[in-house]
Amino acid sequence: MLTYRKPLAATALAVAALVATACSPGSDTPASDGGAGGRPAARGSALAAVDTLTVKGRAPKTGYEREKFGRAWADVDGNGCGTRDDVLRRDLTGVRLADGRCKVASGTLTDDPYTGTTVEYVRGRSKVDIDHVVALSDAWQKGARKWDTDTRRRFANDPLNLLAVDSSANRRKSDGDAATWLPPNRAYRCTYVARQVAVKKKYGVWVTGAERDAMKRVLDRCPQQKLP
């Protein structure tokens, strides 16, 4: 009897291992947009960071004005150039300066993060906007109303929260959060949401329940995505 029990036990173990393997989600198989991938969030990942954000309801937009975040595109880093031109020089290729120092006259936004297209920038008739990844009015409704003037000014000019993007896509986004707007360029969504998480974590901006769930749906597809 002992002669037969050993092979049978080994066979049973092999079958169990095959079944377990077949039922485990493969690391190369992304989750659908509508659900979780079933994979644990990597330590230090954007997905794990979502759970560190405060979840609250959206406050009223009452009192919001762009001016509450300081003069637009201030020179907060003291380099003599406004934030808008700093971001254009960072994000565009083939940059030409109008004054030889700060003012970007032209350049190319290669592989626009929101649309995946190439967009030409020409000062004065630009199709490129500088987007606040976390919109100022969204931040106002989720904590910024209670900040001091200096904190709001830093938030509005923080390079972490700024991207040169296609102007049409940016205007469609308006002040939407992850629950109401995502970039049409699906390949950029993980990076985009990770940046939103990083900004909200840095400044203590809260998220709504729907926004948190939307962030997780995107980041479930890329559980190794790091915060920028």
UniProtKB/TrEMBL annotation:
Location of the GmrSD restriction endonucleases C-terminal domain: 83-217
A Pfam family annotated for this UniProt entry: GmrSD_C
Keyword Acyltransferase assigned: no
Keywords: Endonuclease, Hydrolase, Nuclease, Signal
Protein name: HNH endonuclease family protein
Entry annotated with the keyword Hydrolase: yes
MF annotations from Gene Ontology: endonuclease activity
PANTHER family xrefs: AMP-DEPENDENT SYNTHETASE_LIGASE DOMAIN-CONTAINING PROTEIN-RELATED, SECRETED PROTEIN
Higher taxonomy: Bacteria, Bacillati, Actinomycetota, Actinomycetes, Kitasatosporales
Signal peptide range: 1-22
